[in-house]
Amino acid sequence: xxxxxxxxxxxxxxxxxxxxxxxxxxxxxxxxxxxxxxxxxxxxxxxxxxxxxxxxxxxxxxxxxxxxxxxxxxxxxxxxxxxxxxxxxxxxxxxxxxxxxxxxxxxxxxxxxxx
Length: 115
Fold this sequence. Notes:
It contains 5 helices and no strands. With 115 residues, the protein is an all-alpha fold. The longest helix has 40 residues.
């Protein structure tokens, strides 16, 4: 009877597992047992992490817009309320970027909101 080499599926399974743990620290990226355990923990956090990221960025944008509004003599809540009344559809992400990088443009937006 001819010899049958086995292990291709097991090898592919291991490679797939180690590919998912690329970038992990220490032996969790290269040792199969540690990688499997690390992957179980990381996958349970994936969903939560994506939701938390959205929360953290929104808070950061609010802080940046608030700081920019305070330099123009206006509070964050008053600014956002007046922009909403004037139907200015600029989201917090863009406003935060303008406040940080383009203060003159942000000042014009605040001036328009004050009218």
